[in-house]
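Anyone opening a protein record will find just a pair of labelled lines. A complete record is shown below as an example:
=====
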Amino acid sequence: MLSPGRRLSVVQTLGPLRRGPGDPTVLRDGTRWWMTTRMPSGSATLLLDQVAPDLVEASAWGPGAEERLAALEPLLGSHRPEPHFVDAHPHVADAMRRHPGLSVPATGRVLEALVPAVLEQKVLGVDAFAAWRRLVLAHGDPAPGPVPDRMRVLPTAERWAALPSWEWHRAGVDPQRYRTAQRCVRVAAQLERLAAAGDLDAFYRGLRSIPGVGIWTAAEVGSRALGDADAVPFGDYHLGHLVGVGLLGRRLPVDDHAAIGEALEPYRPERFVAVRLLQLSPHVVLERRGARMARVDHRRL
């Protein structure tokens, strides 16, 4: 049982960890949140039940269960104060009032954030989610405990590295993302050690030294695995639209990092939190118009 003396929202805090509705590693069941993980001590399944606004009941199974339960506070960001921005834009201020339990998760597991982030590079989310689902269902381990059907624990770094190129292709992953993923999984142990050391700058330098890993992928990992509340996903296809409409009343080009950064500057060092609040705001509506990324089924190429 976790009762940190502040409001929590399991769903909103851990929502970014779920890679599409068919993710075999994460499942929402009403107020209950299931997730699998691979801790240093072994695989684990975690069940979180939001029984009150400031109370979460937790159960876990598997060799890594105790280790996962011991790290609940950083996972749920419950050690952080509730988001509070002085002189925030009305949309941000309204979202803070609506979502007081929002926090930034820190899973502590780099590979679990890195592989799906690579799969999401420069493709539609629906296609990336499908590739992740196919790979984990085919090559992951059954989740320990009395879990819902088809839940899996993602493969180990060694198993990812051993997968031949045609397995990635059959899942819908093109050669460029396959090569980037392979480079990442082969240095996974070093990345996990950098993350455990707690030096964000050193971690990001190490991560971005991998060919194919840029600022967007690094931010996606930092905001999930390390709890980096300032990890802005520059380069995200929708970020300019979200920040521009939400804070300035007009779209910003996706590649205008300077303008996006300037709009978010008042929210440093929690710019990622501001982005999440804009995503949750009912007043920030992203119009689905104009050019859209084309779907490509790489399994047929």
Summary: The beta strands are 26-29, 32-39, 42-52, 55-61, 141-142, 152-153. The chain is about 45% helix and 10% strand. The mean pLDDT is 94. Residues 84 and 96 are 7 Å apart (CA to CA).
